[in-house]
Specification:
heterodimer; A: 796 residues; alpha/beta; N-terminal domain of TfIIb; Rossmann fold; Dimethylsulfoxide Reductase, domain 2; six-stranded mixed beta sheet; 27 helices; 31% helix; B: 103 residues; alpha+beta; Alpha-Beta Plaits; four-stranded antiparallel beta sheet
Chain lengths: 796, 103
Amino acid sequence: MMNITRRNFIKASMAAAAAASVGVTLPKQVEAAEAVDKWVKGTCRFCGTGCGVYVGVKNGKLVAIKGNPDAKTNFGFLCVKGFLAYKCMYHPDRLKAPMIRQKDGKFKEVSWDAALNYVADRFKYFRQKYGKDSVAYYGSGQALTEETYTFNKLFKGGFRTNMVEGNPRLCMASAVAGYVSTFGSDEPVGSYADIEKSKCLFITGSNTSECHPVLFRRIMRHKLNNPDVKIIVCEPRKTSTTKIADLWLPVDPGTDLAVFNAMIKYILDNNLYDAKFMAENTRITNGKEVKSIEEYKEFLKDFTLEKVEKLTRCPAENIKKAAEWFAKSDATMSLWCMGLNQRVKGTWANNLIHNLHLITGQICKPGADSFSLTGQPNACGGVRETGALAHLLPGTKPVANDAWRAHVEKCWDIEPGTIDPKPGFHTMKMFDALGGEADSSKPIKAVLVCTTNPAQSLPNLHRYVKGMQDSFMVVLDIFPTRTTQLADVVLPAAFIYEKGGVYGCSERRSQLTEKAVEPVGQAKADIWIAAQLAKRMGMEKLIPWNGDDTMKMNEMAWDDYRNITKDTDHTFAGAPYSRLKKEKAGLQWPCPSVDKPGTVRRYVRGEDPMFEHAGFKAKFGHNFDPARKVNFYNDAKKEGKANIFMRPYAGAAEVPDADYPFYLTTGRVIEQWHTGTMTMRIPEIARAHSNAYVEIHPDDAKKAGITAGDMVEIASKRGKCVMPAHIVTGTLPGVLFVPWHDQAFIRMINFVCNDAVDEVSFEPEFKIAAVKIKKVSGPKNVAEKFIIRDINSKYS
Amino acid sequence: MIFSGSVVYVNPENLSRAKEILKFSDNIDVFAVSDDKTQIIIAIEADSEEHIQKICADLRGFPEILEVAHHIFHFEDEVEEILAGNKVPSLDGFFKSKKREER
């Protein structure tokens, strides 16, 4: 039985922390004692919100976690995923030793030296025999910035290959392409702080309440405190986010481009646009020529409310009302996520949201912004900003840009011409090109997979499994996964609180997590693994941070990255570790010097420090017109303008037909994180949504003879799954929804999903597939919380 | 044992009733109320997170309670139990499933 005094102290300590978070003073008689030895500042490991946390350490173990009340992202609140992360850290399934697969197909534990020497030797062999592009890297928006930066540098500067990709290609690439094509630079203009200043919120392609619960809480409280704030949700499903909406725009999957164009047409036709803002700060273009407003109106002439209603099933009156609210509000903010990005026209969908803001002037002022939410905690900071994709270099600049390539080569102190100007393969092409030595049609023979689970998360999985199985695959992770089942070498990775480092969230904010505890078993930080591989391949000069102190290594890598980008709009020159350690809420780029506070809003004189940044102006030849308050200075035409792209309507790659009569869309639920490798090990989370299910409208269920709980087969041209039916009214008839976290083979929905990609961003169309359904049996209990525990288990 | 430091949100006119509800639970200690009478600071003591979630679900069932939000969790006892091998996070279903597959 626990000591009474200790219990009371702990309870008082908990109450004191909660009270401090919301600014309530406890009565003097409450004696609060610290229940931990120390609190260590960090960031939540899960979604892209970037919640600030403190983790409590006692006797070298993580024993508590609390929200950081000073964090500008979450103000001390946390959702269930962040609270329970400790169970991942101490779960008995943690990978604790390096392993090499033996001839009998079983893994054998080996020393780090043996594992690293083996990997380095194999990589050398493949590069020598099959060329520099035969060894690839596939990273993650969950790895730390320093880790991803190090692997990117090793592969592009050391291996001289651009076969470097990451899972943000699967979730954020269309947002990147949208921002870059419209504004000339990736990532949002504004910040989360615009939520509380907005008068109208346009939420589309995002079930914010489930996927970004802490941000949804901010939106909800803003709405409760200000009932006049209008909330519009544009979604095929009536999600939990629509509970606080004033207006729901239901649309068939993939048809929302028509709705956005109809809103633009209505705004232009009814003179609801901001002519002055448009004239000063934008250009209308078809991608080749500059066009007038009249020409844009002519281009949009077919997007009448009535025609668009027929095409999309979205009521004309709703579109009209949405357009009016959007344009007339004092400040409109749009928020979106995968629903727009994971599409074959994801880039266009992003462009059209930006267009709505640019024609109405609903940008570059408090409460008005076109804001893409990120799915992963470090997709922005780790992958987008460090340029760890096949076509990019640090600073989110193209590898094909001669001047930038030369700059990076100089910073990395490598010979001019070392970095290949030709982009590598995008993710789907990379995995399609992956195979064994016996298959001459597959040029990539080896891949290092870091902190991600492509054997579960790629769409149309059947097509890519053999390549992963036949090639030489090295996996860094904390748990056995579907991908480790196909791997040749498994290297146990440390958890974020066991190594520390920087995460950069959706709002350009990077926050430092300090190392709190030692890794379990023999697990090591990814940056250590990268540096040790570099050392074994004779590249220690390129990656000199090869000691054992991971925080020191992280700091060296961070400084290396900061040096490259110091004269760009991504600059963190003013954010050395010494400052990040002190800053309670991290910093938002651009942050060009230690005396600057970081930037809440870009492109606005007086708020964005790049207007005065001499190094930036000199390096990129910018001249800022002093008469202009707003300047989209990354404009390729050097006019300081954003592009309003005329985008025609285009639907999904695959639409329902007689054989496959349903739309299928997929997504996350609040309690689960991606493929569930971490969250499914947390019993309370696993119980909440232990298995995948298919949501079916009652009309469709009735026609198919399906009742609640029946086992239903969902089949596309690519694959099929079987799972229980949930009969729900919150979706349009003809539209099915399946969450994608379940690891059970029979319920892995990505076998069914489409791998067709956006021709600009190369992001696959996870969100839309044509499928058919049939009842296969009555209800069965499949709440088995299936996870991969046995490292030697088969991929089946 | 798991402890949480949490905030119960109420409308000011429901504060007294909400405090009565909270007082009724053996697992909850009330520590303070905000000046605007909308936030009640509590500590919850429970056997597991699942237990805490049940307590909160029960609280949310009262119309006088708008929301229960957590700011801090203390789970030292849980960690000790896991590391000592006395408490493995429940994965029973997995083994059953594997056995079924093997059959």
